[in-house]
Amino acid sequence: MNARLAHDPHFSRLHVMGAAVAGALPHLHCAAAGSTSTSSSSFFVPDIVRSSSAAFASCAARPGRHWPLRRGNDVTASRSLSWTVPAGRVGKQCAKCPTVCFAASVPTQIHDVVSEDEEDYIKAGGEELDLVQLQASKSCEQPKIAEKLQPLGSETLDLVVVGCGPAGMCLAAEAAKQGLNVGLVGPDLPFVNNYGVWTDEFAALDLEDCIEQTWRDSAMYIEEHSPIMIGRAYGRVSRTLLREELSRRCAEAGVRYLDSKVDRILEVNEDLNTVVCTSGRTVNSRLVTVASGAAAGRFLKYETGGPGVGVQTAYGIEVEVEHYPYNPDFMLFMDYRDYRSRDKGDISPEEIPTFLYAMPISSTRVFFEETCLAARPAMPFSLLRERLQERLEKMGIKVSHVHEEEWSYIPVGGSLPVTTQRQLGFGAAASMVHPATGYSLVRSLSEAPFYAAAIARALKSTGGKLGTSNSQEAAIEAWNVLWSGERKRQRAFFLFGLELILQLDTVGIKDFFVTFFRLPEWLWKGFLGSKLSSVDLIWFALATFVIAPNALRFQLVKHLIVHPSGAKLVQTYVGLVDAGTHSTKLTRV
Ligand SMILES: Cc1cc2nc3c(=O)[nH]c(=O)nc-3n(C[C@H](O)[C@H](O)[C@H](O)COP(=O)(O)OP(=O)(O)OC[C@H]3O[C@@H](n4cnc5c(N)ncnc54)[C@H](O)[C@@H]3O)c2cc1C
């Protein structure tokens, strides 16, 4: 069986579903590939993680590609959608594993099998749902939004923003600055994610005061020797200060607030929508923008037939250590060196590489994170935790105390929202996460003023006041600003990059990053920050091709010719398809 099949979007989706179905099976592991891995000797993993640890079924035929099959049926029980393995695909007994191995199943028909439900399931957390929810519900002492903002009354608003994440709060503030009557609706929960940013980008947003720690440069290790210095300062965002600043901006602009989850959004008549909260409270508004995070499928429609969603997963710990082997003056952006090869011989080239990211906070306190840049299906947290633990042990880093754990699950790629629908979207809900990097914070914060202005313009141009306006027309106008043809071309390029990353093995990914940071600064910075125009991105591609080693050049050309994302990229650029309508389906060639 072709090991690369595991990377195939269609195949991999099956793998996810297979794993979900297999979750109902008792735990089994691969006799050929050795024992299960449960890392019971873990010195820093609390019980909550150990108890949810999945056991691994790995397969000699495709080492490293079998994600754990969960014991028990927790995922099936906790998700709201029902799942079935698509017709034409049958899980079969792997030749090497004593289990029904969906990874070894043979598709009887190759076609795009991803449905909206599947994509939603993956975006919500898929097999990692319990830890994704645990991350979202972490406690963190932060002032309540309700203490700063006036409560929502019963008036009909111009705009309701659903969701109090960074994207929603920033958009609400900017829309109110445009003179709109804005309501913010969402649970009053703290910001719990550890956000890292390039400090120049945050300064440009007037948010440098929200950075709690800055490193003057960032380092990257690809091979054994000295680091590659990226030449760019990096900062750690204070979750508390960012939330306070966004609350302050909302309060100053006159945003009103309701602390409640939204249950559904009703289209009442041409220019009126009703947001129905789980508490039963309703809020009327001319337009609604959903900013409730990546899993927004219950409120927004997404295109069908698009590329499958991938996931960036990272397991992080903030710890006290006795010895930190890197230079503490620099932030460790990526260490792709493989700490295991010394003891275990060659790592299979098929294994998906992960890297270490570290923020040295003091001489003894460090935030470490083992990251899988992108995988489909998601690399499980238990595997990342195990790799991190092994890495730290091999490096002689002894952890004496764990302050915090982080489970970072970021869906990347996937479908665009339908840009003719009446409900608007923003942030991760509107597919604004960079498909190739997983970053979205700076993009959302920097686009908020422009999008807010577009919403205000659209409401005005489609009939200034309630009773005369048209929500549908206004929404289409605003969507076309957020996802303009130019933005869609850029996204086609990034999706091509994501699919390439999903295809690259350890050597390929190292070649890619060495090449990437050797590009002219404006190119790699612009790529990371979603700032390159579609024309700039052609320069990016040409420059990458010129300086890349031959093996990577070959991969690039092959990927462009063979992979559907290559065809899609070319078609989008030459205008044969509107990237928004997906008249051309991504199908395996
Ligand atoms: C651990 C972690 C670390 C990350 N680090 C970075 C980083 O360093 N840099 C970066 O750029 N990106 C990072 N990301 C990715 C991304 O930027 C973040 O996920 C970011 O928080 C997305 O912002 P958002 O406002 O779009 O959505 P979210 O932050 O997910 O906010 C959505 C909000 O909507 C609310 N909500 C959900 N459902 C409802 C409902 N039914 N009704 C009302 N409200 C609802 C939620 O409670 C939440 O407050 C990280 C993600 C994670 C998980």
TrEMBL record:
The keyword Oxidoreductase does not apply. InterPro entries: FAD/NAD-bd_sf, Lycopene_cyclase_b/e. NCBIfam families: carotene-cycl. Transmembrane segments: none annotated. This is Lycopene epsilon-cyclase. Keywords: Isomerase. Pathway: Carotenoid biosynthesis. It comes from Physcomitrium patens (Spreading-leaved earth moss). One of its GO terms (biological process) is carotene biosynthetic process. Belongs to the lycopene cyclase family. The keyword Disulfide bond does not apply. GO terms for molecular function: lycopene epsilon cyclase activity; oxidoreductase activity, acting on paired donors, with incorporation or reduction of molecular oxygen. It holds the Pfam family Lycopene_cycl. It comes from the Eukaryota.
